[in-house]
Structures are given as C-alpha cells and as structure tokens.
Amino acid sequence: MIKAGIIGGAGYTAGELIRLLLNHKEVKIDFIYSTSNAGNSVYQVHQDLVGSTELKFSSVINPEIDVLFLCLGHGNSKEFLSKTEFSKPTKIIDLSNDFRLEKDEVFQGETFVYGLPELKKETIKSATNIANPGCFATAIQLGLLPLANSGLLQSDLHVNAVTGATGAGTSLSATTHFTWRDNNFSYYKPFTHQHLGEINQTIKKLQNNFESEVLFMPNRGNFSRGIYATLYTDYTESIEEAYDLYESYYEKAPFTVISNSPIHLKQVVNTNKCIIHLHNHNNKLLITSMIDNLLKGASGQAIQNMNLMFGFDESEGLKLKANYF
Questions:
Q1: Catalytic site positions
Q2: What is the pLDDT of residues 159-176, one digit of tens each?
Q3: Which CATH architecture has domain 2-132+296-310?
Q4: Please, how many CA atoms are within 13 Å of residue 52, restricted to the half-sphere of its CB?
Q5: Topology of domain 135-293, per CATH?
C-alpha cells in the first residue's frame, strides 16, 4: 500500500480526490494539508464525507510519502514546490495548469509528463511527475485525438462547450452566486481560454501540418458539474469510417466510450467516463464529447494517472456509477 499526501485540501477537486482515495484499496491518505482548515475535521468542509472518515486537515507535511497531489490554484504549484522538498522517490501529480505546456514541463530539473492517458499511457507508466490536463482540454482532446492521429484535421475546428458551476472552483465571484447562475447561461473567454494551449500543443504533436484554428467558445451552464462539448470540422469520409476510426483508437481506453446513440450529460456525471458520439452532415463531422469536470476532468484522471504510475489496474478506485436520476 502506498502513502498519499494532498496539498490544498479544501477545494472541489481535493474533495473528490479524498473520496476516491478513501475507497482505493492500494492507497492510504497520509495527510491533507490546508493552512486555512488545519485541525478541522475533513468532513466539516467536504460534508459528503461525514461518516466516511475521521481524518483532519494538517498543517504538517510528511516529505516521505509515495505520491503527492497538488490541488492548488493555477500558478501556486511552482511556488509551493520551490519552497518545499520531498523525498526523491515521491511522485507528484499536479492538478493546476503550471506544467501542462512544453515551456513549463521542466521545473528544477524535474520533467512533468502531460497526463492524458489516452494519449501518453506508456510514458505515464514510467513518469515521476504528471501535469494533469485541464477539464475542457480533456473533453475536447478526447473528441479529436483519433482525427489528429490520422492526419484528418484539414480545416478550422469549431468547439462549443458548456461547464457546470464547479468548474469555477470554490472562490466566490459575481458569476458563481446561485442568484446569477440559476436560470442563466453565458459565455466567457471567447477564443482565448487558457486550455487552448494544451489542445493546440497536442494537435501539433500528432499532426504537425495542422495550420488551421481551434475556435473555442466556453460557456457557463446553470448546473453543478459536467462538461458537454460539441466539435465540428470538415470530413469527407463516411460516418461508418469515422466510427471505425474512433473505436479502433480507443479500443484499450477503459474510460472512453463511443456511443452510436445521441448522448446527454447525466450519463457521465459522477463517473470517470468520457462518452463520445459522432454525426455526419454534408461533409461536416459533429463530435459530441462529455465528461464530469471534477472526475475525468480533474481528480478521477489524477487517480487514473496514479494507477498507471504505480502499476495498479488502471480502473482501480474508479468504477463509479452515474447519478442518473
């Protein structure tokens, strides 16, 4: 059994991470570090865990753990690691965007591998440090990997994706209050969202002749969790060939499901799945890709990466059922 530590234990992703690790047969949580909640019971913050654990938040860090999860705000992981040392065998999984781009992947002599298992499974298995992908980036990339891998992205890729309120984190802002979010819908960061860096980086790695644009419109939905993304681009082959391409690419991906029927968000909420549906119309391929932003888009994918890094079954601790009703 390995020992895990969590830094930044009070946020949404940390709460999901704790819940998953408590039910993982190969892991024991050694500490959950939170300066603002030190000494408090974990279930006082993550109230769904009442009756599940008596762990308390800690102000002390054990540097001798096997795996460290960083659940800090964007930009804070580098600062934390520059001030805190861990034992050489400690593996690090960072859930922020600090190490996702190639220009940032080497830090203090350590390399962070981009942790999208459907793209880099074999590299992840031997990695010491992982940069966990962003939630929008995960849904969108899983929707386009088979096309890019086969060199079939030949024109602009149009993306419209909606995320739930948990995508904004626990900090309050004008657009996260219930009175603003309820019965409401809006876009933000049109064509400039930070996850575009990851997405474009992956496309260019797989298809270096891609010179078109990824035109991404992120939206806020009036629900709590999940991402529903629709992508379309030029495609001259048949829908049957498209399905063959996707099913072949994801044949050994335990959490990516190709559906022949139209899909809806409740199928993935509270699971680590990505479900993809394809539709062809007048030489345009419409790809629908959806995930739970806190699980496959964050903590579930982090556990998936941990499983690969330590040689556990990839699905261990992640056989979760959708909250369908």
A1: 135
A2: 999 998 775 455 555 566
A3: 3-Layer(aba) Sandwich (3.40)
A4: 16
A5: Dihydrodipicolinate Reductase; domain 2 (3.30.360)
